[in-house]
């Protein structure tokens, strides 16, 4: 059984069909990349998968359970996590508090009113582990809004990993990064291990070909073609509608 | 990337709510900066009735009640990022509930009365919260206008109800004749001095509970929702439930302030649930600062103090003075007196940083 099965998923904004009858599935442990020109509906599809948007039709099945109409937080509890294309952190808190808040989201004590949040030993230990794994432990007491952009992107990915997801949806993880930082993110995604399945939106072809096992090309809200990296490289449709116009840049925005 | 400049004392983050967040490591070792002022102020409040005339004692009682009112609103506003124009509804409702229970319900036991009034206020907040949060969507702290209007309407609605239900509430002249609380169980006769201590105890206990709540796991989730609700949902938080429960909590604590106010004045008028009272609590929070815990306490001291002086020297000009304070507060100290005081205190303690 596939981890995630998407069946005829559609959403309309007025007369505009932003996502049209999209059907695909992801196996446990797979690395799937989703590419497509701007406005192809990639982020919209992400929003449908995570529940930020309600679909006009179709179903989303995760671990055999129909989650089409589940709320965002309920999907996270089931094991779906996402990062955001536009960095979405808690800018006025320190790096450590960001990690603590993120880790708490799927833990039982999150409604507790009697403990002292910042002194929660279990959470603090988990935060140290998380921050060390993304290389931000040294910056733990910095306020997030004062971090460099590359560090904020790292934290963005770190927060997505905090819930211990089965399925990780990454929305342009290397967006706006320098080539060095981008390579760093690429290797970190590679190191995630087979317990985490990754679905990733990316414009950065080095990242896509460096990580993905399978690629889906989305065009005008529809799956235009699907295949392995080599198949996609060789595919004429892909060259025409996507890569041809972006040969000059590797780090897309 | 080049190193970013650090903010000066009066620039940058200080104008935002979380300006004063300090890393845990530094705030834990905080006896002199935090505990000492609390002890000094506490001791002063305990000794106050011995030294000052009774009208000052009564003024300070009122300050404490409004401080609790302001701090209760700040659970919602300062921490949850949810401003409301209807917080006075709970204040007034708590007071009315208390008065009606005494006068019509015949319940003279203070604690039973308090618990019942809190429960009724919380119930009201739970009822009003459901429709109110239907118009407060995800991340609506940027645009809470519909929520503000709905909560404003709730308050005004309760005012109309209080005016209309004459037999229960006394109509527009108000519910008069609320006696000082009875503490026969403890063998204490309540006069204005022991009432001062009763208010002091209840307000301090409430401050402690609220302080624990805003620094708890729940409290930080609320702060996270203030900062970035979309992300909080993606992290697995049921943000609606947090907002809704914080509305009930704020309402319940506002109700406690209302109960104390009913005993304090001995009379409840319909206006205490409406815009006039909301204005005052809004001003208390704005002037005192929503971004620090003790901000509304400072705001309450200033506002109640100025109101008292105004009533002495320029009677009937209070609304004009209040309007002027609002304008000056927003133009000159948008971050609030609380932040200014904290900043001064920090510089005093740490030298110039």
Structural summary, described in words:
The complex is a heterodimer of chains A (253) and B (353). Chain A folds into 2 domains: 4-79 and 165-246, Rossmann fold, CATH 3.40.50.300; 91-151, no CATH class. In chain A, 33% of the residues lie in helices and 24% in strands. In chain A, strand 1 and strand 2 (16-26) form a beta hairpin. Chain A has helices at residues 42-50, 72-78, 95-104, 121-133, 149-161, 179-190, 205-211, 229-234, 236-241; strands spanning 4-13, 16-26, 31-35, 57-62, 65-66, 80-82, 167-171, 197-201, 214-219, 222-228. Chain A has 9 helices and 10 strands. Chain A is globular, with a radius of gyration of 18 Å. Chain A has 253 residues and is of the alpha/beta class. Mean pLDDT of chain B is 86; it is low at 1-28. Chain B has a domain at 59-273. Chain B starts with 23 loop residues before the first helix and ends with a helix. Chain B has helices at 24-28, 31-51, 54-79, 87-103, 110-132, 145-164, 166-169, 192-214, 217-234, 239-265, 275-288, 295-313, 318-332, 337-350; strands at residues 175-176, 267-268. By secondary structure, chain B is mainly alpha-helical. Helix content of chain B is 70%, strand content 1%. Chain B contains 14 helices and 2 strands, in the order αααααααβαααβαααα.
